[in-house]
Amino acid sequence: MIEIYKDWNFPDTQYVRQKTEKKQIVLHHTVSGDKVDGDTSWWLHTPERVATSYIISREGHLHKCFDDEYWAYHLGLSAEHFNRFGISYHRLDPSSIGIELDSWGALLQHTDGLFYPVTRQNGKIVPNLKCKPVKNIYEYCSNQKYRGFQYFDRYTTAQLDTLKRLLHFLMEKHRIAANYKSDIWNATPRALMGWEGIFAHASYRQDKSDVHPQVELVNLLKSL
Question: What percent of the chain has pLDDT over 90?
């Protein structure tokens, strides 16, 4: 068993209460502030069945939205994502378990020297000055970018510790092997073909930067 900090017990209308065989675990981040409540409230107040089974707060608290034997939409895939690799469109949400890490994700540095979450303004990606500056910075690489960004909200040690325990739990429960390969940080046919393993949302879509390849997360996945 895994210790759950809070079980949100989503109503049946917010996920698909259908038990399905699981082959993949998919890591996301929320692109949001310090509290999980905002993410769950957003999902609960929309008619779409978009959600993940779990969210891990920055403090490492594990929030459960619905049982991982069921499923919800979390990948946002269209035929275009499959066509790029010559793969026929098929649904992967039912056979995958989604996990969110609470994080702002990509950041931009403002002229004041501080780092802010990103937003779109007049067709451009700019720092969101309506948000508080983020202090826990992860620099992807001094001379490279990941999906167009160099700076990210750092996943915390507490989050990664909880994530590791959760992954071991889910791998054992659903008999899923990690099958780590470095191709998960780009859109890869392995993910879109439904191969068994642990993937990032970015493994399916070129327009996503979750989760970013923070070195501690990479090492965690390699260790599984």
Answer: 93
